[in-house]
Amino acid sequence: MNAGDVMTQSTVTVDPDASVMHAIQMMLKRRISGLPVVDNTGALVGMLTEGDLLRRAELGTQKRRPRWIEFLVGPGRLASEYVSACGRKVHEVMTTPVHTVTEDTPLTDVVRIMESKQIKRLPVLREDRLVGILSRANLLRALVSVARDTKPANVADSSIRQHLLAELAKQSWAPVALVDVIVKNGVVHLWGTLTEERQRQGIRVMAENTPGVKSVEDHLVWIEPTSGVVLPSMDDFRTIGRLS
Questions:
Q1: How does residue 48 score in pLDDT terms, banded at 50, 70 and 90?
Q2: Residues 118 and 162 in one domain
């Protein structure tokens, strides 16, 4: 999927010369946490987000530093922080430059940019013109849609086993040689030994995501490396408790 497949097309924007209070009222009214800033030529010139409005003089939350730190920071940065805390116009407090994507940008790249730049939304451009906005909420809606469209499949037990073993072989963390998979009537039985307890959850999730699987029964054991104690799965532990 690409950015254009999940973006919000009807994007609310704000003029760079608009007042900060006007922009805040728009954000509250529309229940959005960020506004693209677009000038009278239609060019995207910045983004105004909730994060830009946290350090405000009106709230008494502007940055304060000891004098010796201010000396190290320098007058330029201090002046910029003052403008951000006290500016009355959108262009004085907005974030620039803006990280953007196009409609053809894969969602893998979208997520990478969001993570590396620590941002929650990306303007979507077409030939340098704003055509949409892509936020984390858009990604969540896309995830729900994909999950809703996924229907249980009738798959032969042998096919389930082959698929799961192939997926295990692709994962560098999976102890492939120590794990066996038995499938009966769509129920996956996991047998074998783990080299690290956290592998258990990974293998179980992999089995649950395999098409045709109805349920998973975990019989994997983990040998604690320090003491050599053999620890059964919770499924087997409950079974032992019922039998005792």
A1: very high
A2: no
Is residue 187 within 8 A of residue 198, CB to CB? The reply is: no
Per-residue 3-state assignment (H helix, E strand, C coil) for 95-163 = ECCCCCEECCCEHHHHHHHHHHHCCCEEEEEECCEEEEEEEHHHHHHHHHHHHHHCCCCCCCHHHHHHH
List the domain range (segments joined by +) for residue 64.
3-147
Domain termination site, one of 147, 170, 188? 147
- Single out the residue of 231, 173, 158 nearest to residue 218, CA to CA: 231
Q: Cα-flanking dihedrals φ and ψ of residue 31, to 5°?
A: 60, 50
Tokens encoding 46: 């910045």
- Look at the block and give the residue holding tokens 């894969």: 106
Q: Give yes or no: residues 120 and 198 share one domain.
A: no
pLDDT band at 4 (very low <50, low <70, confident <90, very high): very high
Indicate if the pLDDT at residue 231 is higher than 80.
no
Mean pLDDT of 83-91: 92
Q: What is the pLDDT of residue 244?
A: 56
Q: Are 62 and 54 in contact (CB under 8 A)?
A: no
Same domain for 137 and 111 = yes
- 191-200: average pLDDT: 90
Q: Is this model's pTM higher than 0.70 or not?
A: no
CA trace torsion 35, 36, 37, 43 (10° rounding): -160
